[in-house]
Amino acid sequence: MTDKEPAGVATRRAAMRLLDAVLRQGVPLEAALANAAAGLERADDRAFARAIASEVLRRLPDLDALIDAHTAKRLPGDAKARFALRIALVQARALGTPGHAAIATVLPLMDGGPRRLVHGVFGAAMRADARLPDPPSLPKAVEKRWRKAWKQEMVDAARAAIAAPPPVDLSLRDPAATAEWAEKLGGASLAPGHVRLPRGAAVAELPGFADGQWWVQDIAASLPARVLGQGEGRSALDLCAAPGGKTMQLAAAGWKVTATDMSGPRLERLRENLERTGLAADVRQADVMAETPEPIYDAVLLDAPCSATGIFRRHPDVLHRATDRAIAGLAEQQAAMLRQAAGWVKPGGVLVYAVCSLEPAEGEAVADGFAAEREFTRDPIRPEELPEGITAGGAGRVRVLPGTMAGEGGADGFFVARFRKG
Ligand SMILES: C[S@@+](CC[C@H](N)C(=O)[O-])C[C@H]1O[C@@H](n2cnc3c(N)ncnc32)[C@H](O)[C@@H]1O
């Protein structure tokens, strides 16, 4: 920052770096934060840079339409002037920043001609009183893909779901105490072991966080471990386990858990989570594909790496990174991992495959391909195993789409299938 730079410019510069990382380099927003916000000392400035970038990603198609409606000559998608305009307009039209502050803090990021252009386009949009639509539009490619896979109704529900940040869900270490925790935290429970808090709840300050009575986990993300039921001392292998939401559920449900993941930093978070909650698991760093499948377990859970389009409400960057090609590559990786995971299952044991994706190529198609293998049969998930409002579809698999539990604040997109060996 130079001495003459107006206050707030560094925050917008960090927001611009974040958007560049997501949109031009395909990096997840969370992973880009440390670098992009390195120059910002204050936590609230870092949080604001993230909020600006997040809101731009939530409303990108509409911001671009607004920019295009006020420029004589179309700006390239990756032009710095377009990035600056997105940042200025999202503040003025969605984040409540006064127009003069929104533009004054982005102009220093531009030089010469583009600076005049940004000033001119912003001024024209403001004079025309141009607004962003609510609910926001999804990126065209995503709308097209989801309409084809799930029909227009799902696209409409997804647009409604991205309009506002979702509530905060907690999973409890002791499901028997659900009513007690719901009351103590001022939340509502939608299933045993679950409490839903209003959006924006400052979780680290709430009772029960420090002593590990609960952890943050969307209700949809709690399904894969729920459908494994009570462990009663039996063994479970949690593959791709970090940061450990499902490991903790399994340990709390009485499973003797082995948790593996290939990422050292993510396993560190898993260990911290176990320590905070006082739950136990044997934790190992391992690549699923490089391991020999032994010993064998009563249950194996594969929460596979995926496009993560199911978590678009909290992480709108996923919508801009999940290309058809990326999805196809991830689906192939999941199919290979599932075949590998099968080797760890005891005869008569259970295998659960899950992804937080809204792409049938990753959920249904991978499960169908696997079901064709002889030694496993489909093990349909029964209604009584699921929270009210979530249903199992064809072949007893669970597909959570936007619109599920809409009246209660919705749920992340998820797919869960269960198989039995032999
Ligand atoms: C969807 S996340 C898992 C979330 C976790 N199950 C939970 O509930 O908190 C996918 C995980 O897969 C891990 N991963 C990706 N490829 C892997 C591989 N080949 N072997 C092991 N872990 C892998 C990633 O490090 C990431 O932590």
TrEMBL record:
Gene3D superfamilies: NusB-like, Vaccinia Virus protein VP39. S-adenosyl-L-methionine binds at residues 240-246, 261, 287, 303. Coiled coil: none annotated. SUPFAM superfamilies: NusB-like, S-adenosyl-L-methionine-dependent methyltransferases. The active site is at 356 (nucleophile). Keywords: Methyltransferase, RNA-binding, S-adenosyl-L-methionine, Transferase. GO terms for biological process: regulation of DNA-templated transcription; RNA methylation. Pfam families: Methyltr_RsmB-F (PF01189), NusB (PF01029). Residues 130-422 form the SAM-dependent MTase RsmB/NOP-type domain. One of its GO terms (molecular function) is RNA methyltransferase activity. PANTHER family: NOP2 YEAST -RELATED NOL1/NOP2/FMU SUN DOMAIN-CONTAINING, RIBOSOMAL RNA SMALL SUBUNIT METHYLTRANSFERASE B-RELATED. Belongs to the class I-like SAM-binding methyltransferase superfamily. RsmB/NOP family. This is 16S rRNA (Cytosine967-C5)-methyltransferase.
